[in-house]
Amino acid sequence: MCGIVGYVGKRDVVSVLFKGLTNLEYRGYDSAGMALRDDGEIKIYKTLGKLINLKNELEARKSELKHPTSGIGHIRWATHGSPSLVNAHPHTCSCGKLVIVHNGIIENYKELREELLKKGCTFRSQTDTETIAHLVADEYASAKNLETAVRNSVKKLQGAYAVCVMHKDVPDVIVGARKHAPMLVALGEDENFIASDTPAIIEYTKKTIYLEDNEIAVVTKDRVRITDIEGNEIIKKVEILPWEPAALSKQGYKHFMLKEIHEQPDVIRNVLNGKLYDIDSPIILNEVKIDKEILKKLNKIQIIACGTSLHAALSGKYLIEDFAGISVDVEASSEYIYRKTTTDESTLVIGVSQSGETADTITAIKQAKAKNSHVLIITNRPDSNMARLADSLIPVNAGIEVSVAATKSYSAQLISFYLLAIHLAEIKGTLNKEYLKSIKHELIKLPSKIEEVLSNVEPIKTCAKKFSSYKNFIFISRGINLSTAYEGALKLKEISYINATGYAAGELKHGPIAMLDETMPVLAILIPGGITYEKILSNCEEAKARNAKLIALTSSNDKNLESIFDVVIRIPEINEIISPAITCVPLQLLAYYIAEYLGKDVDQPRNLAKSVTVE
Ligand code: G6P
Fold it and tell me: Ligand 1 centroid to 611 CA: how many Å?
């Protein structure tokens, strides 16, 4: 959600904070702000809208700054209080000496606010964050120590928070604290950093310490002290980040999304590397830390995820049931956490998340752990909170994904599910050898087939141009590609704001067909050779009879398709069961080019955040 970065040290503080916020802009972008310690004062700068506005503001007012020595910065994705200048962070206490930035939601802020109002605090914003500023200032008045004041304050907070606090009377000290929201400290020479995520600091250091819930960090230029909620000092492990700063550059592409779409062949090679050697060898998935005898008897899996990861999970269900014959439920984390589930110690619970920080999924995972289930996490961030909760961890190694719309991480999750489903099938002996070989063969060929798609984007661009003015879309398919239809529709919605729905093709006639006419294009994913092709074709004929414009995404060479469909997008020949790993790519490109034609902000679509760390 919101992004936080704090810095104390020798470098140009404004540049460090600005660079850090730029690399966190995927987390939120309705307003931004900085508090800088300069010449004995704390100076605050805030602007509405994207980060560039803050840059311009700082540029215009740079004569006000002498030599800032520390600072905290924030990029906001509004939860409490509309996006406005007054609600932008940093927030201050009544006298303005204490400044704070916050990510999360304080659930008891109204009660705390009432108490603080009675004590004479002056509130200026509608945010829950401002309450923390007054609370810490109130505690500081008696404790006279910023660390203690923060500790006493966070004990009173309910909800989720990652906060950074500075005080005018405590020069060049940043106090950070977290609960249910990510925060890390990064170490340099004569400088230290604090941030909500690693991209904020990767340009400067790879040495990081991840804070756990209820830990408090006091960060100065040459020291980092971490304590628990009772004030006991903790010696934490320093981890070395695996990312390179180059991962955060567009490398010549117009948008991160386009770059990330094009990275998919290599991402898939990466995921397969070390796990799938050749068609004759079994899949090696040592990451699954469950005894083989237990896996043989496993008969219940639940997969929980949100957004795009949920769509990968739906493919995972199909694959595990098809290959290994194990019954799988898939549920949105936000639903799972508010009902009585049948999760128990014999259930394998799989959490899927690009960021590893999605609050709903983290809560769901914690609930599953409380029921003694084995928790397997599939994530792109082995350094995340979710990864730390895992009993088994499959890192998908897609590299940092910057664009808000997930693309390469989806492919990587999908391939991880193929490997897991085959692995389970091999342990259970549910697939015959020849079939296993053919699937592995297709998986090995996948990257080059995707390269073929990526080297011929013109038909997709043309289709995007032709359909960019339509206001509604339906994406249909059946079987293994139904989740691809959901994902294709989600991509289009997310970045072009066109109303798009993914629908089971056979369900079209049970309701949605009522909406079909020449203004509602129907995109069908249909792969020959399997069990669904002819059926989907019939569903398309039904749509055509209602004057709907038809787009086919297919590996068929049948020239007759041109007489049924207005546009045919062709992909290389592929086995139906493996096809979602290819069909997702033209759909990502279609969404991308439509958004481009419409002039939308592809990498940072309105109202969205890449990592949703509040429930
Ligand atoms: C947000 C993002 C989506 C993402 C979802 C789940 O809503 O905008 O793109 O799919 O969160 O995120 P996760 O990191 O758990 O996969």
Answer: 6
Pocket of ligand 1 (CB under 6 A): 306-309, 353-355, 358, 361, 404, 406, 608, 610-612
Strands 550-554 and 522-526, bridge-based pairing: parallel
> Are 395 and 478 contained in the same domain?
no
Q: Which of 215, 232, 247 is the last residue of a domain?
A: 247
Are 65 and 167 found together in one domain? yes
Ligand 1: centre distance to CA 76 (Å): 17
Pocket test for ligand 1, best of 311, 331, 337, 358 (most atoms within 8 A of CB): 358
Pocket test for ligand 1, best of 303, 306, 389 (most atoms within 8 A of CB): 306
- Residue 344: CATH number of its domain: 3.40.50.10490
Between the CA of 306 and the centroid of ligand 1 the distance, in Å, is: 6
- Please indicate whether residue 2 is annotated as part of the active site: yes
Is there a domain that residue 611 lies in? no
Question: What integer pLDDT is reported at residue 28 of this predicted model?
Answer: 66
> For tokens 């086919």, what's the residue?
552
Same domain for 100 and 231, yes or no, is: yes
Q: Report yes or no on 614 lying in a domain.
A: no
Residue 34, SS3 per DSSP: strand
Helices (H), 273-375: 292-297, 307-324, 333-336, 359-370
Closest-lying ligand 1 atom to the alpha carbon of residue 307:
10
**Cα 11 to the chain's mean position, in Å?**
30
pTM higher than the cut 0.85: no
Which H or E run contains 440? helix 433-454
Looking at the CA of residue 306, tell me the nearest atom of ligand 1: 6
What 3 state SS string does 343-369 have?
CCCCCEEEEEECCCCCHHHHHHHHHHH
In a domain, 606, yes or no: no
Query: Do residues 242 and 276 share a domain?
Result: no
Is residue 283 located within the same domain as residue 165? no
Q: Which of 310, 305, 280 is nearest to 489 (CA)?
A: 310
540 tagged catalytic: no
Same domain, 291 and 398: yes
Q: Are residues 309 and 438 in the same domain?
A: yes
Last residue of a domain, one of 247, 269, 285: 247
Domain co-membership, 382 together with 526:
no
Strand 215-219 vs strand 300-305: parallel, antiparallel, or unpaired?
Answer: unpaired
| Nearest-CA residue for atom 4 of ligand 1 | 307
Residue 349 lies in domain: 251-453
Give the number of domains in the chain: 3
Q: Which atom of ligand 1 is nearest to the CA of 406?
A: 9
Report, as ranges of residue numbers, the positions in the chain whose pLDDT lies below 50. none
Q: Which residue reads 């997008």 in tokens?
A: 569
DSSP conformational letter for 515: G
Whole-angstrom distance between the N-terminal and C-terminal Cα of the chain?
A: 11
Q: How far is the CA of 411 from the centre of ligand 1 (A)?
A: 14
Burial call 111-126: b when 16+ CB within 10 Å, e when fewer: ebbeebeeeebeeebe
